[in-house]
Amino acid sequence: MNADALRRTLDTGEAHYFGRSRQEMWRKGATSGLVQTVVESRSDDDQDAIWLRVDVGGAGASCHLGYRSCFYRTIPTAEQAGHALTFNENGKAFDPVATYGDVPNPTRL
């Protein structure tokens, strides 16, 4: 999230982001209907990070791959170095193809 996205988020009460892969501002849910309505926002002590608590519309999921959250994988710690990422979610909350159609997916798995 950049400064403009934060300003739009606070002004509208809906999460806006700046996507580095697309180099553009976007409102979560504009295409999918999975709007993130801000319930609470916080800043860290030196005000360079923001934390949002949101209610998610539609299927209640946020990840454009269909998972409930984009944080669906665990990174191995030092003892597990070299192991694959571990999936934390048992399945997808919605079908991303039905929701987004043929919109290019910037995610690299």
Key descriptive features of the protein:
two-stranded antiparallel sheet; 25% strand; 2 helices; alpha+beta; single chain
Global morphology: globular
Note the quaternary state here: single chain
Largest sheet: 2 strands, antiparallel
* Intertermini distance: 22 Å
Report helical residue fraction: 10-25%
Return Rg in Å.
15 Å
> How are the strands ordered across the major sheet?
1-2
Strand tally is 6
Structural classification: alpha+beta
N-to-C SSE string, H for helix and E for strand = HEEEEEEH
Mean pLDDT: 90
**Low-pLDDT stretches:** none
Which range does the strand content fall in?
Answer: 15-25%
Output the number of helix runs.
2
Brief summary:
This protein is of the alpha+beta class. It is 14% helix and 25% strand. The relative contact order is 0.15.
Q: Can you characterise this structure?
A:
The chain is α+β, with helices and mostly antiparallel strands. Helices cover 14% and strands 25% of the residues. The protein contains two helices and six strands. The strands form three sheets. It has a two-stranded antiparallel sheet. It has a two-stranded antiparallel sheet with strand order 3-4. The longest helix is centred in the N-terminal third of the chain and has 10 residues. The radius of gyration is 15 Å and the shape is globular.
